[in-house]
Amino acid sequence: MTSICHVVSVSGGKDSTATLLLALERVPREQIVAIFCDTGNEIPITYIYLDDLERHLGIRVHRLKADFSAEIAAKRRFIARDQRTNREYQRVPVLDVYGNPVPSRDSQGRIHYRTVIRKGIKQQEIVPKMRKAHGKKVRWSNKAKRRALTVLQPTGNPFLDLCLWKGRFPSRMAQFCTEELKRNIAVTFQLDLIDHGFSVVSWQGIRRDESQNRRNAKRLERIGPKLWAFRPLVDWTAQQTVDFVRSQDCPLNPLYSQGQSRVGCVCINTNKQGLAQTAYRYPDEIDRIEDWEWLVGQASKRGFSTFMCDADDRKDRRAIFADLNIRSRVEWAMGGNGTMDLFADVPIDIPVCASAYGLCE
User: Fold this and answer.
1) Which is it for strands 87-93 and 130-137: parallel, antiparallel or unpaired?
2) Phosphoadenosine phosphosulphate reductase domain spans which residues (predicted)?
3) Distance (Å, rounded) from C-alpha 289 to C-alpha 306?
4) Would you call 325 helix, strand, or coil by DSSP?
5) Reduced to 3 states, what is the DSSP secondary structure of residue 28?
6) Is 300 helix (H, G, I), strand (E, B) or coil?
7) Which residue from 3, 306, 11 is spatially nearest to 178, judged by alpha carbons?
8) Pairwise CA distance, residues 79 & 75, whole Å
9) CATH number of 4-71+144-333
10) Bridge pairing between strands 113-118 and 121-126
11) Where are the domains of the chain?
């Protein structure tokens, strides 16, 4: 009979802690393997909490880290050898004096048409005439090469190394950090177990009410041969997970008593209040991010990169960086020039204990 291994992904947050407690209740302890995918971008108290959780539950949490040394080395080689001389252009429609697209024509003056399918119905539409716009050099300039090659060295920090490799920080539209730092590492670990003859059940602390992307999450799902995903919290609310963990006399991450509604790496998903709380309680984290912005900017062809990316159509990268760098974001979050009225335009007064889950009552 093939052995079953129950892999529980632990992040240090309430949902993963509740999932681990449920696993310990339902399956033999010797079949449970708890893993923590370390992004290298966690608030330090989370690492302390994981140590406390191990002692409290008497179970080891395996620390996993991504390594991007090979990718950074490949990027160094590419930049050093880049000799491209062409330019890339964005193509935009040609408009007439009334602002309408000008149709594309062949040498005989006949309008070009193309077939499209809309709502299941094939239609013929006019092909617009296009022109080149917003040209940019493809190759790395010699100045940019020197700048990037100076900093492009593995640091051992997964998050920073990932951003050095990409030449940018993650954003809402390109949230590659989750895949590269968590999902891929966890899947590789589980596939290794399968290669050693185990069937794997991956316990995941996912709730349907977390986001639109998770609203259809299944409780049990077959991912592949000998690999299943089990999500026992899909119907739970955030408050239910907190109440369950407390009912088990198990500690919660102290960040939940410090105004954080979510626990995880400081990133684009951090809300205004969370950023303000982090800056107030852990100012060294903001210093670290500021250093990272400089390093990743140096590794970027553009020369600038902001930790919390926002859409901005301006061409002057210096102006964008001045408005969106981490110091400016912290000033906005703490009310210096905020627009969301979180702190009602008064000096921020953060209490010793602040919780969205009633932990201070």
Assistant:
1) antiparallel
2) 6-70, 199-266
3) 9
4) coil
5) coil
6) coil
7) 11
8) 6
9) 3.40.50.620
10) antiparallel
11) 4-71+144-333, 87-138
- Angle among Cα 123, 128, 131 to the nearest 5 degrees reads 155
What does 101-157 look like in DSSP terms, one character per residue? BPBPB-TTSPBPEEEEEETTEEEEEEPBPEEEEEEEE-SPPHHHHHHHHHH-S--S-
Cβ atoms 302, 315 nearer than 8 A: no
- Structure confidence by residue, pLDDT tens digits, 11-59: 999 999 999 999 999 999 999 999 999 999 999 999 999 999 999 999 9
Q: What are the start-end ranges of the H helices in the chain?
A: 14-26, 44-57, 69-81, 142-151, 158-166, 176-178, 184-195, 238-247, 272-281, 283-298, 317-324, 326-333
CB 251 within 8 A of CB 49: yes
Least confident of 12-26, 170-184, 242-256: 170-184
- Cα angle value 102/108/111 (rounded, 5°): 35
Q: What is the predicted pLDDT for the residue at 347?
A: 45
In whole angstroms, give the CA distance from residue 53 to residue 66.
23
